[in-house]
Amino acid sequence: MQNYWHDSCERVARDWEKTIEKAQHEAELYKQHQVDGVLIENMNDVPYVRDQKIGAETVACMTRLSQAVRSIIPLKIPCGVQVLACGNKHALAVAKASELQFIRAEGYVFGHIGDEGYTDSCAGELLRYRKKIDAEDVLVFTDLKKKHSSHAITADVSLLETAHAAEFFLTDGIIITGTATGKAASAEDLDELAGKLKVPLIIGSGVTKDNIEEYFNKADAVIIGSHFKHNGNWLEDIDEQAVEDFMRSICRLRDATE
């Protein structure tokens, strides 16, 4: 039993060090290609549990990883964190401890059913917690009618009404997505919100070098995940050529609008 325990602990330690090294390697690539910001997320931590069941070990590991990334990415480049599923208070604590500038929050206004269970709205509790831990300089960007979820219970509330509710509840930015990871946000959803918000509008899934022009003049920012991976698959490693090609597309679009 002692040998088994010793061997198991050694393996876990090696795997954990590899995880940290990989996160720093990816941070180096993003730094080299001059991305505008970096978002850290425990996407591989499947199956997800709801926020009430997220353990201290998740917060500890995400804090360690965030600090490792922050050691590579200079403070002038914003870094943020999301803790799945709906670990918004956990993410705030990680951001506070790791000098991150924002979090991505789920379930900010209105309830919905996700694949991990029911998610209730959290804006009031979350922003009070942010004040309590003296983290009001950490921005909270919030998903609306988030992907991988059913929104039948709020089907009579439009996307724009949901966005205005999030603004009323003091969100710092609004994120819209497609129906699943890697799926593009619909043109209809974008048009419903573009130019009608007081806070930044962010596209949170499905953006590629081939469709970025559709979003460029209507959204304030985009979050890239799957497109930066080999074969467009979020499970695979970063494809440096994909990052380079995308950043070139962004530069061309910026030059064209100046």
From TrEMBL:
Keyword Coiled coil appears in the UniProt entry: yes
Coiled coil region boundaries: 6-33
Keywords: Coiled coil
Keyword Coiled coil included in the entry's annotation: yes
InterPro entries assigned: Aldolase_TIM, BtpA, RibuloseP-bd_barrel
Pfam family, one: BtpA
UniProt record similarity statement: Belongs to the BtpA family.
Entry-linked PANTHER family: SGC REGION PROTEIN SGCQ-RELATED, ZGC:162297
Protein's name according to its UniProt entry: Uncharacterized protein F13E9.13, mitochondrial isoform X3
Gene name per UniProt: LOC117568095
